[in-house]
């Protein structure tokens, strides 16, 4: 049915949009900190670049979720059932929200590390380790999307 496909694609849209918005916010939060820290120590640009880019990965997870539903499970067809559409919508909403919030929070962790590095502290490795924790939840959400997709095929 057409309405089922519409519901599924709304879920896909939310998954891509929310995780992408989170990545944009997270990267800009860390990027702002990098600009300030570069004023104090411009030799650490490589460290700042890595920490600034890290929150951008959640947006990629949103795209990966779409490719799972489209390619691996081939659910997004006109023959999609109501249960499958609801599953795609729920998985997309979950991935989108987790990607949104984990990216923003990861950007804040990275921004604090960038500020500390700019002040002369050697905390790049520690910041990288701590910044991975919010990332873990986006990975778990992507695994959930995979499990949802495999359950409704």
Characterization of the model:
By secondary structure, the protein is mainly α. It has one domain: Four Helix Bundle (Hemerythrin (Met), subunit A). It has 5 helices and no strands. Helix 1 runs antiparallel to helix 3 and helix 4 runs antiparallel to helix 5. The radius of gyration is 18 Å and the shape is elongated.
Query: Class, according to the CATH hierarchy?
Result: Mainly Alpha
Major β-sheet profile:
none
- The number of helical runs is 5
Work out the helicity level: over 70%
Which structural class do you get from the secondary structure elements? mainly alpha
Question: Would you summarize the structure shown here?
Answer:
The protein is an all-alpha fold and 153 residues long.
Topology (elements, then pairings):
Layout: H1 2-40, H2 45-53, H3 57-72, H4 82-118, H5 124-151
Key words describing this protein structure:
153 residues; mainly alpha; Four Helix Bundle (Hemerythrin (Met), subunit A); 5 helices
């Amino acid at each position: 049915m057409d309405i089922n496909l519409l519901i599924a694609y709304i879920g896909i849209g939310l998954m891509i949009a929310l995780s992408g918005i989170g990545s944009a916010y997270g990267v800009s939060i860390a990027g702002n900190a990098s600009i300030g820290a570069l004023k104090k120590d411009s030799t650490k640009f490589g460290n700042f670049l890595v920490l600034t880019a890290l929150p951008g990965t959640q947006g990629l997870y949103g795209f990966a979720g779409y490719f799972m539903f489209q390619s691996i499970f081939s659910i997004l067809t006109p023959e999609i059932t109501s249960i499958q559409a609801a599953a795609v919508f729920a998985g997309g909403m979950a991935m989108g929200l987790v990607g949104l919030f984990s990216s923003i929070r990861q950007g804040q962790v990275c921004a604090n590390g960038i500020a500390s590095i700019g002040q002369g502290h050697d905390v790049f490795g520690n910041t990288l380790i701590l910044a991975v924790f919010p990332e873990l939840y986006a990975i778990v959400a992507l695994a959930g999307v995979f499990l949802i997709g495999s359950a409704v095929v």
